[in-house]
Each structure stands twice: as C-alpha cells, then as structure tokens.
Amino acid sequence: MNLKQRGILFIILIAIIGLSLSKTLVHILTEIWWFDTVGFSEVFWTRLTWQILTSIVTFAFYTLFLWINYQIAMHHTRHSSFRFFEDSTLVDYTDKFANFMALVLILFIGFGAASASTSVWETILKYLHPTSFSEGLRPGGSDRDPIFQQDIGFYVFQLPLYEAIRNWLLFAFVWGLIVSFLVYFLKDNFILRQSNGRNTLNGKAKNHLSLLLAGIAALIAVDFWLKRYSLLYSSNGVVFGAGYTDVHARLFAYSVTSIIALLVAVLLLLSIGRRSSALPMSGIVLFFMALVLLNGVYPWFVQQFIVEPNELTKEKPYIANNIRFTQNAYHLHDVQRQNYTAVSQLNRQVLQSNQPTIRNIRLWDYRPLLSTYRQIQEMRLYYQFQSVDVDRYTLNGNYQQVMLSGRELAYSQLPQEAKTWVNQRLKYTHGYGLVMSPVNQVTSDGLPELYIKDIPPVSKVDLQVSQPAIYYGEKTDNYIFTGTKTQEFDYPLGDGNAYTNYKGKGGVPIPTMWHRLAYAYDLSSLQILISNYFNQQSRIHYYRLLQERVSHVAPFLHLDSDPYLVVINGRLQWIMDGYTTSDRYPYSEPLAQTHKATEIFQGGNIEQILDRDVNYIRNSVKVLIDAYDGTMQFFVVDETDPVLRTYQKIFPHLFTSNSAIPSEVKVHFRYPQDLFKIQTQMYLVYHMNDPELFYNREDLWRLPTETYEGNEHIMQPYYMIMRLPGAANEEFIQILPFTPANKDNMIAWMAARSNSKEYGKLLLYEFPKQKLIFGPRQIEARIDQEPQISQQFTLWSQAGSKVIRGDLLVIPIDQSLLYVEPVYLRAEQGELPELKRVIVAYDKAVVMEKTLEQSLAEIFGGVQEQKPVPSPVPGEVSNLAKSALATYQKAQEALRQGNWAEYGRYQQELEDILEKLNQGSKS
To answer: What are the distances in angstroms from CA 733 to CA 259, 354, 679, 750?
Structure first.
C-alpha cells in the first residue's frame, strides 16, 4: 500500500469516526444551550468534565495496560508464530492480522470500560467532598458505626470509591491475563514439559502470567479487606446488619483470607525466575482451604452451636444497633410519642369549638373528583386534568383546604386529521388554567362547588390567576416551538379560538439556521430545518415533563411521585419534592426488605427506591417549577442532611438556602406523601425500641385496609386541617392510622406536620391497648350492617346507579375519634360521580344523611329539624316506580347528549322519588 492509498484510508477512517460521533457531539452542543438557558451551566460542565476525565483516564489506562501486556507476550514469543494461517497463502500476513485483531479487541475493551466509567463521576466527586454525619443526628446520637468506629460518611462517600477502584483494576488485570494467555496459547508457548521429573511451564510465559496473577491476588486481598465493611449490610442474622456470627466469625475469616490472598501474591512474585511453581500453588491451595473452612464451615459452626441455642442473648446488642441506625436513617429517631385516650366525649359544643376542623373534612375523594373535573371542566377534547392535588390557602380570610388540578394540553386526544407537524409543534403548545374547589362544599346537584373554573379562569375568591398558560407540566411530553411567524392557540373563545404569542423566557433561542440545523439533526426532524415559520425570536421548548426536567439537572435526586400545582402571585407553579438517598447506611434495613413492600408500593417513584435497596432517605430539597417559563429553583429544606451538604459542595450554585425561600412559597410546602408512606412502612416494626420486644415481634403493626369500588386496598395517608392535641391552632397535617398485625382495630395514628415552624415533625398518638378502638375495616363492616344504609344502597343500584364509597377518614378531635365516609352516585354508563350522602360514625352510632352537617346533627343534635318526607300510600308505589324508571331514562338520554344541567336535574328528581319509595317501605 503506497502513501496515497494510506492517506485515503486514513481520511475514510476519520470520516467514519466523525460521523459516528457527530450525533453525540451535536447532542452535547444542544445540551450546552439548554443548560445555559435554564441557568445551570455549572452543573452541566461539572458533570461533563468529570465524565470525560474518567472516561479518558480509563480508556488510556486500559488500552495502554492491555497493549503493553500484549507486546510483552509477543516479545516473549517472537521466535514462534501463530498457527491459524499455517497452510494458507495468507501465512505472511499472520502477525499483521494478529496485531490488528489484538488492537480491535483492546480498543473494544477500552471503549467499553471508558463508557462504563462515566457513571462514576458522582462517586468520585462525593469522595472529594465528604461530609460528616455527626451533625445530622440528635444530640447524643451515634454518628459512627459500632463495629469499626468509622463515621457514617466513610460508608456513604468514601467506601464506594474504594470498591470502584478495586473493580476497575481487577477488571483490567483479568483482561490483561486473558490477552496474554491467548498469545501464549495460540503460539504454543503455554505448554507443559518434563524437567527433572516435574511438570513446568515455559519460563517467560510463566513469569509474565505470574506477575498478572500476583496483581489479581493482591486485588482479591483488597476485596476481602473491604468485605469486612460490607458485613454492616449483612442479611444473614435475625436483623439487617452485622450480627454475632458476622462479628465473631466472618470478620475474622475475611481478615485472615485477605492476608492469605496477599501472601499468595507475594509467593507468585517470588516464583518469578524460578522453574518451580510449588510455592504459589501451595499458597493457592491454602487460599481455597481458607475459603471453605474459614468462610464456610467456621461461620456455620458458630451460628449452629453458639448463636442459635442462645440467639436472643447473643444477638441482643446487634438488634439494638439495627433499631437505632434504621430509625436514624429514616428520620424516625425523634418521633414524638403521646397517649390518645380515645374517649367518647364529643358533643355539639366540642364540635363548635373545632369548626375549622369540621369545615375542612374532605368530602371529595380524589378519584371521583378527577372524573367530575374531567366531565364538567375539560371543555374541549384536547384538554385533560392529569391528577388532583391537595393544598391549603387563606381565601376570603378563611384558612381552608382545597383541591385543584391544572388543565393541561393532551395533544394525543386531537382527531387524527388535526395531528399535523404544525399543530403539534407550533399551534397546540400549552394547557390553560385550572379548576379549584373546597374539600367540603357541594352544589344542589351533588357536584363540587368551584372556586376557580372555566376558560379564561373565573375566580369566586380573592385568588386571581394572571398567567394561566401551562407550558410545563405532567402531560407536556413533546417539544414545541414558540416565537414563530404563526400564533399559538391559546384557548377556545365562543365559536372561535383565542391566539397568543409566547412572551416568557422559557425555551432555548434558535435565531439562526445553524441552531435549527443542530436541532434538526439532534431530534431527527427535517421539518425544523426546512420550515418557513421560524425567525430570530423563535425558541424551542423541550424537557417539559416535570420529572424529566428536574432529573435532567439533578439526576442524583429521587423525586416524589406527585408534583402539585400551586397559585403564587397569580402564576401557576409546580412544587416537586426531592429526596437524597443512599444504600450505604450501616445497620439500616432497606425499604425493599420490609414486609410486603413490593405489593404496597406498586407504581410511582417509590419503586425506584425499592430497586436500588435504599436504606437512607431525607426530604432535603423542594423544587419550584414555573408552569409558564419552566424556571426551576432548588430550595433547601433540610440543611442538616450530610448527603445534601456534599452535593452543595459539588454544585455550590445549584441550591437556594432555606433562609432565602420566599414566604409565599414556603406556606405551600407540604410534607411529601411518598416519604410519609416510606416512614410509616418502616415504623410498623421500628416503633419497638426494646431489642427483646423487637426479637419476639410482640407488637407488630400493619397499615389498615379499606374498600373502594369493591376492591380492598391499603389505606393511603391523607391531608387535613385540624388542631392537634395540645396545640393552640389548626394546621395542615398528613395522618395515617395503624392497626395490630393480625387485627383490624386501631392501635395508633401518626401525623406529619407541614406548617413552616413545625415542618417535618412526626407525632405518634397511641391508643390504650386494653381498649377496643374501631379501625377503618371494622367501621366499614358496621356501615354494611346498618339496615337503612344497605337498603338505600340497594335501591340506588336497582335504579341503575353505581354506588361509590369514598375514602373512610378517621378524624381525631379532642381525644375522640370521628369517622367520615362520603358516598357518590354515578350512572352505570356515565363518568360524572355526584356526592349524594355523607356517612358519619361515632361511638356506637352510624348515620347517613345528605350533608355532613345533617349527619353530625343526627348524632349530636343542634340543627333545625328537617321536614319529613311524606310517605306514599300503597296505591302510589307502583306509580312512583314507573316515574323513577322514566326519570332515569330521561337522565340517561341527557347524559348521552352531554347536557349536564338536565342530567343533574333528572338525578335530583330521581333521588326525591327514591326517598318517597324508601319512606313507603319503612311504613
């Protein structure tokens, strides 16, 4: 091959490499533009710099190390040749072909190792910026593990890098051994021969391979030494973490095995230059004997004959370690425990003094309410309410709980004919407005009373929405362009539409053809390049999904499953909770190993926590995302979290300190539901502080169950406004009851506080154990057994309506308990649930009336007597039945036509007829 041909070949090779890398390089360019636009360039460059650095170092080390070993093996076998082209005309190209194949293999291994190493950037940076855990615990709390007396930060920030380096080197040495072995084997130099009656290896091959084996043996020694620390995550004992056998047997076994592996490495080095392999072979035999005897037989013997006959005595201190460290890891060590007498002392006067609690009892279950919102407020087929959020506002001077949902754009619901590139990318760009309703108010038609509704938003309260457009949300899963030559669809207006031009600062500017070319290539869309709609003011908006957007900036944060919408200063904003986590907290039991964790936490982001065996979690960050321009602010809410403080050192300009959080934002912070679910799951067992009680599992709890639409499921935590025992004022909290492991009565309830001064505090109220306190399942059974209630359910079902019983709420009031369950009716073929009844249970009474106040009055008195419904005479029953059927048919016809007003009127008429029928049956 002449010089010209080599030049052409080189150019072709460079072109192929350039084309293969061009997609990556262009994507990096667009990422630079995006991070610069959102204001987090520092995060991007820090991450990219360390990813490139680790990959370059890894690639250089691996290729150099493997190539040197290959060349050493080739040098030692220079007088031999490969045999695979021996009888071919290609025999002269044997060495060139071998070199080429070796180079390809080495480059492939180098690229693979470099690619794998890019994920280690976070481990390296955490190692370089560690934080002590001593300030993260309560006074007197242990910040060091009880076995090695290392700071917890050693396990979270430093040990992972040591293990990564061990694996990094071991992988390199193993591949070096394989490459060298292949050379010796393929050149017939790796053979056995007789010398003085003994089998010996080729001298130079033996020396080279002995050196590599010595390196591997040394790394195995390091591996066993580091395994000593992994005993703190052992699951071999009665609890998670190092037990008696681990500390008294396996720890010794790992230490001795590590020393023996190091001895083998020394013996392999000493064997270099000697023909005999007796020394290293004896060392290897000794190593495998240690594996069997010290790591297998010895721990088994200790467990069987020392621990199990006296398990509680031997394991008691290690159980105490597990309890203490698990409580610390899940922030359960400072739960304030109080007694709750649960006496039957409620009366009208007590209820009157707790009116803020009564007025904020949530009568709307989020599932039927979401269905109702969709039927009466989506307005057009391309709008959708994704979820219903719960929050609290001071409206018209009243502090109250509300439910709200953003009206997002669902492009997929457009007719197929309208799904054009222009509509998808330029026209239908955003959702519009929200719907908000109080948790306890109902119209005469059984529908929610709406505080904010319609398009444009109309508000009945002193909360106005000045910027209702939603460009960033839970449904915004595609990229769009704004600032183009065509106006965007804003909202439907009468028989036409209103249009707008985007005036926010969101999106990446694309003023030139070069910008459009880059995005056309990155997004594989030719239309971006050839469309005539773009100008110098055009912007591209992508990463618009909330979870995706936040994770792209801070991939090290675990995000809550439920971002919630708030109205702040007239703008729609999203608040998302971020968690710092670790799977390296000593002695702390992973959430995934708790009872029925996989079944309880199906769906949502908690599954990621289960998959990663997380055993430490803090809600350290809350992210505020503007729905109009996508601006993100990462607010610190737990400044004592050592993991977050390490990330603050790595990214000093990413987070906003707690003191700088605006008050109008802080008043909307709520204790996250995912975290509360995790903590309550762990507390089912880890409320027991006594090791002996814990060992015997004498006081196991479980989460209560309830029934919804005929299916039994685990009760979910719920928000409410109430005055806690001993507190001066009502506050926004999240609560969840507990029941004993094998019974349905309630044993306790836990509350998580959300008000700014008390934010994050957990309180546990325990019932007297000698007293029966009805749990949710028992109350639902009592409701089912109430003749009048079950009869009414049957009548509704026979009339063609589906009865939906909402969440059963346990309402603690002044050392007493009130149970409230809303009842909804929905047509069998309809999707418009209406709130028709409210069931209240207290002490021995179970009543069901049209409103909460009437149900309370039935039990406690205090409201005007309702006029009795006249009972029909026997001759009228048949006519009433016919009238009920006719009214039902009219209601169904109105439903099919989408005439909700008529449907509601007919449903009310049907209810009145059924009331008369019911009175007739009683008489």
So the answer is: 56, 15, 15, 10
Neighbours of 922 (CB within 10 A): 9
Q: How confident is the model at residue 865 (pLDDT cuts 50, 70, 90)?
A: very low
Q: Say which range, 397-411, 473-487, 895-909, has the weakest mean pLDDT.
A: 895-909
Are 839 and 823 spatial neighbours (Cβ–Cβ below 8 Å)?
A: yes
Asked whether 653 and 635 are in contact (CB, 8 A), the reply is no
Q: Name the amino acid, one letter, at 649.
A: K
- As a whole number of angstroms, the distance between CA 247 and CA 834 comes to 62
Q: Tell me what pLDDT residue 225 has.
A: 97
d(CA 468, CA 433): 4
How far is Cα 769 from Cα 763, in angstroms, rounded to an integer? Answer: 18
Query: What residues are paired with 558 via a beta bridge?
Result: 579
**Contact (CB, 8 A) for 363 and 439:** yes
Residue reference for tokens 């702040």? 568
Could you give the angle at the alpha carbon of 655 between the alpha carbons of 649 and 657, nearest 5°?
A: 100
410: amino acid identity, one letter: A
* 456 preceded by a cis bond (ω within 30 of 0): yes
Q: DSSP of 779-841, one letter per residue?
A: HHHHHHH-HHHHHHHHHHHHTTEEEEE-PPEEEEETTEEEEEEEEEEEETT----EEEEEEEE
3-state helix, strand, coil in the chain (%, to 5): 50, 20, 30
Report the distance separating Cα 450 and Cα 376, nearest Å. Answer: 11
Angle, helices 41-76/121-128, rounded to nearest 10 degrees:
110
| Distances 274 to 204, 208, 264, 836 between C-alpha atoms, Å | 10, 12, 16, 93
**What radius of gyration, in Å, describes the C-alpha atoms of the chain?**
35
Render pLDDT for 416-426 as a digit per residue (tens, 0 to 9). 999 999 999 99
Say which amino acid occupies 88: S
Structure tokens at 334: 């400072």
Kindly state the helix (H) or strand (E) to which residue 702 belongs, with its residue range. Answer: strand 701-702
First and final CA of the chain: distance in angstroms?
110
> Between the CA of residue 40 and those of 1, 118, 627, 655, what are the distances in Å?
52, 20, 18, 10
Cβ neighbours of 325 (radius 10 Å): 26
Chain segment 435-460, per-residue pLDDT in tens = 999 999 999 889 999 999 999 999 99
Q: Count Cβ atoms below 10 Å from residue 397 Cβ, excluding itself.
A: 7
d(CA 85, CA 101): 14
**What sign does the CA torsion over 101, 104, 107, 113 have?**
negative
DSSP class of residue 508 equals: E
